[in-house]
From TrEMBL:
It is found in: Membrane. The lineage of its organism: Eukaryota, Metazoa, Spiralia, Lophotrochozoa, Platyhelminthes. This is P-type domain-containing protein. GO terms for cellular component: membrane. The keyword Membrane applies. Residues 1-19 form the signal peptide.
Length: 906
């Protein structure tokens, strides 16, 4: 008995210490990191088996999502054992850590005992933090090109780093901004405040403290733009073909967050990881929230963006991944599509009836109806006979055609070029044992999947499409079902039983009862660069790159290889903006999807995929006339505007509705065309400067906390504020007017100034969308045409000058030769406008190398306090009209914007 007393005392002491670490006072609710993230299986005994704490039944909780099982503050983690040589690339810190002995949430055989930490300056404003296993072993790393690196700027870096410094010290890393000492990335120090670092073979977890009041980003999800920091919320990233609904992982994975705190100070964090992953947000404790990252593969490769403004963070992120493609001008017009035209005659009928009633339109699309048996690069001989002639007809009218292409190639179809060539070039994805090709199922039936990471994949895609593109010279390609989506679960024979890639020990909370391969290919499938387990979220990236290259080198002789290409992709991953645009998938025709379509578009602008849109009027289920009107009004200010709906549903093109609805839709589509010079310029800015196109009020007014949660009104560029109606039957709505700006009502007589600021109720009859111009800006416009080609060629320009409270305004105009040339060719004109009290001038920044007409027809100045005595434009007195602060000068014959402009009114 005497020999047992010390042991009993030791056990009692340990139990007491554990209880202390698990108590509410030692670890507040908001700081508790989930030790049982699985959907099922949690129990008090199982939790204690992991060495974790079980929530006491007597504790009061405010959120049912708070974990029952959580890590104690002293849970075993990694401790510093020494430094190592800095790796290539100038890492400032390179440290090794070893895991404590003790309980583990994962089997010891899967636990990685040694990890390394590297911290480097990617540039003076971007810190890179890499946490991996030992340098002498190899784990999956995302093969994504990165840009904007500047080793020379490291000496002037705008951030500081602290890490573990003494042998045996608990793992931690902290990045702070030098200008204000603001902590941007903080894993906690020796107190373990944010939970332990876990690094197992198929489970990696790190929690950080986030000093912010609101965050944005974290993937493609349907719901509010701002992410909650007042509740427990999980965001899952695993590309999936699924109708957009709340709390689902959808088509794209973008693990980037923009954090905003007091005074509008901002920073950003990006995790470069392509495996299935999730981010858990926990409520704030004071100014700090806990954010937990989990992934089931690869390494933790973080980039921390210093900011300090939201615009700075966005620019730094866009610079890292490369600029978005500049879209061709025609693609900014109105697009019309549906799944279920059925025949070419029906497609032509829909097109012609909309042209007949003067609906501006630039692009006709064909979903999979046009194919022969849903096979890529084919045309149905009966239903779409004469498709080539129709394309020529559309082109003769200076409009465009886009068709869909799915990645799955019909299996066992000898005599079909895309199949035969794939066999010959051996570019298909393979089974886990590498002995055969993996078989999926999509619209054609059983299919094989091109491995777009294969060195010959682009050549295969080109050779497969050459004959089709020569005969049917479409203007763009729409790549769909590219998550990749499959009607089989994994393959025609399932997935190999017991394979840890198909049945990992932990699966993030994805759609499908935690089955990683549901609706897609077996993760164990083999690709040239590795397993599909690692490459799944990257599939669309590599397909988009190959498809862009196909259009770049097309054989029809009608396209210069230095012209801009149009590729639209459903699935996305960071960096895809260099090759493709995006639409938000198979949305529902309902008011909820209308309301939150805007949040998704704002999020994708953060991610750099600025040319994003939603199926106007809804894709699934039948729309209503009122819903379609309101959606068309909002869609007129989406970066990408396409009306599209599904098989078996009533038509929803504008001509399908009543004459009153047609009139309202025509007006708002025409309004888009009228603002096209301004919109086009904003796309140029996004490409040249890394800015957004559609943006939240928060981005423009970060110091105004009232703007932080607003996502039912938005800005297009810095000068237009759009306030859609998203409630059925509403004829007015509340609009927030940031008091720091001056606002003018586009629909009011004489562009009347909005005098009361803050939250106001404004009229919103069915005929109009509330639309406002922000003071301080010069907006270029044109009379709208029925297509971009003729509008660009024939319509002169109008400049709207909207001064701020000090009488100042500025703006710019990008215009080019034909709307499709690469910017590198220099076939464009860029000018800047500057207005002060009573005058306007322009400055040429870049001039056309060849002549293009750019006539100025009119000038309108808003907020002019008194009627001027005269108006002089380029040295000549001009006739003008003045009423209620609105000054209008028209018939400016002979004023060419390619030359400097000088105007004054006094």
């Amino acid at each position: 008995m005497a020999c047992q007393l010390p042991l009993l005392a030791l056990l009692l002491t340990a139990a007491s210490a554990t209880a202390m670490q698990c108590s509410t006072s030692a670890l507040p609710h908001n700081a508790r990191v989930d030790c049982w993230p699985e959907i099922v299986g949690a129990s008090e005994s199982a939790c204690h088996g992991r060495g974790c704490c079980w929530r006491d039944d007597s504790e009061t909780v405010n959120d049912d999502s708070e974990p029952f099982c959580f890590y104690p503050a002293d849970y075993p983690t990694y401790r510093l054992v020494g430094s190592r040589d800095s790796p290539a690339g100038g890492a400032e810190l390179a440290l090794n850590f070893r895991r404590d002995s003790g309980p583990s949430a994962w089997p010891p055989s899967r636990q990685i005992d040694q990890v390394s930490l590297s911290v480097s300056a990617h540039s003076d404003r971007v810190a890179r933090i890499q946490i991996a296993d030992r340098p002498d072993t190899s784990r999956w790393r995302v093969p994504l090109p990165l840009f904007g690196g500047d080793e020379t700027g490291a000496a002037a870096q705008q951030f500081s780093v602290r890490t573990s410094s003494s042998a045996g010290e608990r793992f931690f890393v902290q990045v702070t901004r030098n200008s204000d000492g603001w902590p941007l990335f903080d894993t906690g120090s020796s107190d373990g405040a944010f939970g332990p670092l876990l690094f197992a073979d198929q489970f990696i977890q790190l929690s950080i403290g986030l000093s912010a009041q609101v965050i944005y980003g974290l993937g493609e999800h349907l719901g509010p733009f701002a992410k909650p920091l007042n509740q427990w919320k999980r965001f899952v990233l695993w590309n999936r073909d699924a109708e957009p609904n709340p709390d689902r992982n959808l088509y794209g994975s973008h693990n980037f967050l923009l954090a905003v705190g007091g005074g509008g100070r901002a920073f950003g964090i990006f995790l470069l990881n392509s495996n299935a992953q999730e981010v858990m947000l926990q409520p704030r404790l004071g100014q700090r929230a806990t954010v937990t990252y989990r992934t089931i593969g690869g390494i933790l490769d973080f980039f921390v963006f210093v900011g300090p403004t939201p615009k700075d963070v966005i620019q730094q992120y866009h610079e890292l991944l490369g600029p978005p493609m500049m879209p061709p001008l025609w693609s900014l017009g109105y697009h019309l599509c549906r799944f279920g035209f059925g025949t070419l005659d029906r497609l032509k009928f829909i097109y012609e009836r909309n042209v007949k009633i003067n609906i501006p339109i630039d692009v006709m699309w064909s979903d999979a109806d046009y194919m022969d048996g849903f096979k890529d690069w084919t045309v149905g001989a009966e239903k779409y006979s004469g498709f080539d002639t129709f394309i020529k007809q559309i082109h003769s009218q200076h409009r465009s055609v886009v068709v869909i292409v799915d990645p799955g190639i019909k299996n066992n179809s000898t005599g079909y070029l895309a199949y035969d060539l794939g066999l010959k070039m051996d570019i298909w994805m393979r089974t886990a044992d590498n002995k055969s090709y993996i078989v999926g199922a999509v619209w054609p039936g059983d299919v094989l999947w091109p491995d777009f990471t294969h060195p010959n994949a682009t050549l295969y895609w080109q050779r497969s499409s050459n004959e089709f593109l020569f005969k049917y010279p479409v203007d763009g390609l729409w790549i769909d079902m590219n998550e990749p989506s499959s009607f089989y679960q994994g393959s025609d024979t399932g997935c190999p039983k017991g394979n840890p890639l198909d049945f990992p020990p932990y699966v993030p909370h994805i759609i499908g009862y935690n089955i990683l391969y549901q609706g897609t290919v077996c993760p164990s499938a083999r690709q040239y660069l590795g397993s599909h387990y690692d490459l799944h979220n990257l599939y669309s990236y590599f397909e988009a790159k190959a498809t862009w290259q196909v259009l770049r080198t097309r054989p029809d002789g009608q396209k210069d290889n230095r012209q801009r290409q149009f590729v639209l992709s459903r699935s996305t991953f960071p960096g895809i903006q260099r090759f493709a645009f995006h639409w938000t998938g198979d949305n529902n025709a309902d008011w909820y999807n209308l309301r939150y379509s805007l949040s998704t578009i704002l999020s994708f602008n953060l991610y750099g995929i600025v040319n994003t849109g939603t199926d106007v009027c809804g894709f699934n289920s039948a729309t209503t006339e009122e819903l379609c009107i309101r959606w068309t009004q909002l869609g007129a200010f989406y970066p990408f505007m396409r009306n599209h709906n599904s098989l078996g549903l009533p038509d929803q093109d504008p001509a399908a509705f009543s004459p009153i609805a047609q009139q309202i839709m025509r007006y708002h589509i025409s309004l888009r065309y009228a603002f096209l010079p301004y919109m086009y310029t904003e796309f140029y800015r996004a490409t040249a400067n890394g800015s957004t196109v559609a943006r939240s009020l928060m981005e423009e007014f970060p110091n105004d906390e009232e703007t932080w949660l607003i996502d039912d009104q938005f800005m297009f560029g810095p000068a237009l504020m759009i306030c859609p109606v998203t409630v059925e039957g509403a004829v007015d709505r509340q609009v927030y007017f940031p008091p720091s700006a001056r606002w003018f009502d586009v629909h009011a007589q004489y562009f009347a100034e909005v005098t009361p600021k803050g939250l106001q109720t404004v009229p919103a009859p069915l005929e109009n969308i509330p639309l406002y111009i922000r003071g301080g800006h010069v907006i270029p416009m044109q009379d709208p045409g029925n297509d971009t080609y003729h509008q660009k060629l024939l319509q002169p320009f109008l400049l709207i000058v909207a001064p701020d409270a000090d009488g100042l305004a500025s703006g710019s105009l990008f215009w080019d030769r034909n709307g499709v040339d690469d910017l590198s060719l220099g076939n464009y004109q860029l000018m800047e406008f500057s207005a002060s009290k009573g005058s306007l001038s322009s400055r040429l920044v870049h001039q056309f190398p060849i002549g293009v007409q750019m006539q100025l027809f009119g000038l309108q100045v808003l907020g002019v306090a008194t009627k001027p005595a005269n108006v002089i434009v380029n040295g000549r007195k001009r006739q003008f009209m003045y009423s209620n602060g609105w000054l209008s000068v028209s018939n400016l014959v002979g004023v060419d914007l390619k030359s400097p402009l000088r105007a004054s009114w006094n």
